[in-house]
Amino acid sequence: NAGVMQNPRHLVRRRGQEARLRCSPMKGHSHVYWYRQLPEEGLKFMVYLQKENIIDESGMPKERFSAEFPKEGPSILRIQQVVRGDSAAYFCASSPPSQSNQPQHFGDGTRLSIL
Amino acid sequence: GENVEQHPSTLSVQEGDSAVIKCTYSDSASNYFPWYKQELGKRPQLIIDIRSNVGEKKDQRIAVTLNKTAKHFSLHITETQPEDSAVYFCAALSTGANNLFFGTGTRLTVIP
């Protein structure tokens, strides 16, 4: 029973490049959440998606950041023209389809480093 | 929006002693409160959660209490062991909301 799968685990990019982070939810889960964690800080919500729909992107910067969760395949968090401040751990979580307030289970994260 | 505060930021206890971590929240509509344990370089791991219709929940050495009136909830770890050393995060989720609001974390060190 695989958990939330994220890849890559580590990603290094130079300023101005694009970063693509992937997340496959747990089997049976259709809700995906992306969070960002800076060193020594808590997790900050970025975006919540269901299949083919962005439900809430209130925590995601308006520029350079985008997310999708296509009908087939993993959810993708895309960061264009990366800057040093984008360096962080990006965690994906998933929860089962339900009305509300279901436990969210996290993946191992992608640690993004910007040179 | 919701604001979750967590104290203390660091906590050191002797092995076998108890550890208590406290959180407060601001949104009275919050009704789900999970606790996560995060070891260095690893994923946040859900260790226990509580819903607002319950005042206390226990799972072996871990317990969580919730005071809705005062808007605070606490994590209690008894008979601590070195492997309990990690950063612990509390979180809150409001009715109808989509995302967890996290506290700033407590770094627990259990001294053998």
Q: Label the structural class of chain A.
A: mainly beta
Return residue spans of chain A where pLDDT drops below 50 for at least 5 consecutive residues. Answer: none
Q: What is the oligomer described by this structure?
A: heterodimer
* C-alpha termini separation of chain B: 41 Å
Structural class of chain B: mainly beta
Order of helices and strands of chain B: EEEEEEEEEEE
Could you characterize the architecture of this molecule?
- The complex is a heterodimer of chains A (115) and B (112).
- Chain A is mainly β.
- In chain A, 0% of the residues lie in helices and 49% in strands.
- In chain A, strands 2, 4, 5, 6, 9, 10 and 11 form a seven-stranded mixed beta sheet that branches. In chain A, strands 1-3-8-7 form a four-stranded antiparallel beta sheet, with no helix packed on it.
- Chain A is built from no helices and eleven strands.
- In chain A, β7 and β8 form a beta hairpin.
- Chain B is mainly beta and 112 residues long.
- Chain B is built from no helices and eleven strands.
- In chain B, 0% of the residues lie in helices and 58% in strands.
- In chain B, the strands form two sheets. In chain B, strands 2, 4, 5, 9, 10 and 11 form a six-stranded mixed beta sheet that branches.
- The model of chain B has no long low-confidence stretch (mean pLDDT 94).
- Chains A and B meet through β5 and β10 of A and β4, β5 and β10 of B.
